[in-house]
């Protein structure tokens, strides 16, 4: 009986280890930003910036896939990689993958709930200047932020 309990205990520990190492959500995280916003990573391609307490269609967010981010006062600035449907001809497959051709920049004002997005780099630089955000602000990889 002792041997059976010992074996059962070891088996449970082994399964816990396997599940925690390889189970879903192992690399998911959230990182606080400014104005009650955070970076949320739900999967390899679902990395977005949203309020910590949820949002609706009237809330300013930066959609997936956020690659780099930084904060300046009430502003969140980000570099984003666009996503595309994995199987555009299959209406049942809604999974999205990174689109290597699409890179854009976003500026989110957390105090006034507005976002400016889909900016090309030159337009992004001009917007930073018009909002008095230093043009030399560095965007930091979301995994390092």
Textual characterization of the structure:
With 145 residues, the chain is α+β, with helices and mostly antiparallel strands. Helix content is 21%, strand content 37%. The protein is built from 2 helices and 8 strands. It has a 5-stranded antiparallel sheet, with helices on one face. Strand 2 and strand 3 form a beta hairpin. The longest helix is centred in the N-terminal third of the chain and has 21 residues. It is globular, with a radius of gyration of 20 Å. The N and C termini lie far apart (52 Å). About 4% of the residues have low confidence.
* Oligomeric assembly: single chain
**Cα separation of the termini:** 52 Å
Poorly predicted sequence stretches spanning 5 or more consecutive residues: 19-24
Helix content: 10-25%
Put simply, the count of helices is: 2
Q: How many strand elements?
A: 8
**Proportion of strand residues:** 35-45%
Query: What's the story with the biggest beta sheet?
Result: 5 strands, antiparallel
Report mean pLDDT, rounded to a whole number: 87
Reading the helices and strands in chain order gives HEEEEEEEHE
Summarize the structure.
Helices cover 21% and strands 37% of the residues. It contains two helices and eight strands, in the order H-E-E-E-E-E-E-E-H-E. Strand 1 and strand 2 (37-41) form a beta hairpin.
